[in-house]
Amino acid sequence: MDKDKIKNFAEKVISDMGAAMATGMAYVGTKTGLFQTMANHGPMTMNEVIEQSGLQARYVEEWLKGMTCAEYLFFDPHDETYELSDEHAFLLASEGSDHYVGGLFYSVPMMLGVAPRVADAFVNGGGVPFEDYGHEGVLAVDLMNRGLYEKRFAHYWLKSIPETYQLLADGAQALDFGCGSGRVSIALGSAFPNSHFTGIDVDATSIETARSTAQASELQNNVTFVHGSTDLLVADGGYDLITICDCIHDLTRPLDVLAELRGLLRSDGVLFVIEPKAADRLEENIQPLGAMYYGMSIFHCMTQSLAAGGPGLGTCMGPAELEWHTREAGFSRFQMLDIKSQTNQFYAVRP
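Above: the chain's sequence. Below: its structure in token form.
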């Protein structure tokens, strides 16, 4: 055996373990507000962080040291101060923005907490149903997507299909399938007051969250949320736009659902699809984003589909498989949209 390869791989394992622990500590920093406490404060002593955070001293001390070793914080050994730079705070302490990464950290314990059950499913089959992730699962997904949907969906992403954008401005009917906590419908409802938006999801906790958010946003007139699936909607080709965001790969009946959505669209309507940015060829996914998405697939996306007897398409199904599914479901036109994103791919699918 090549001793250098063994040494290099041992170093990689340690690096990966360090990264895993860093994401766990970053979750704590997100959940407890420690990143927010340190944002825009410059160098802070340990006691200043403890005092301003109101948290337990010994835990804060160890967290500061750990986040320094993970290079999230900067340590000045002369003054014994810790600093969250403005550049790091831009990503870590910017909840509600389109560049906030706290939702990624929030998802880590939600997914890895079911790791023993997923390992059991490797042996016995089945998986972990979506509802078993509970409120924390809904919140994690919401935090990952909220800022993007609120800041980019209406006036950036949808402008890639200008005819639909204009229809929404004038007044149209739109459906968000698999709406989760409702951020898409709420963002679009606010941007296009002349149109009506319906969000639908089979998860009761998500719909409850969506309704509460819509009520707080005072968007009850042109936004409606429905608990259930497409069989509760009238298949009369009544929607000008249907959005399906980051969930086709989760479905237990992807072909059936896509065919049902096809029946709900007007003949000139558009199915706007967002899916994780993954290539069709495995060798093109060999990089950190690919590793992250395959992990998310195993611990969240694929397993919930398999738990319900679905095909378990997985997070990284890629454009070719998505196109095959849409055409098999009766759609005739499939277009990858030219929208820049580090993490997502966008499609306009038409009858």
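The first helix runs from residue 3 to 32.
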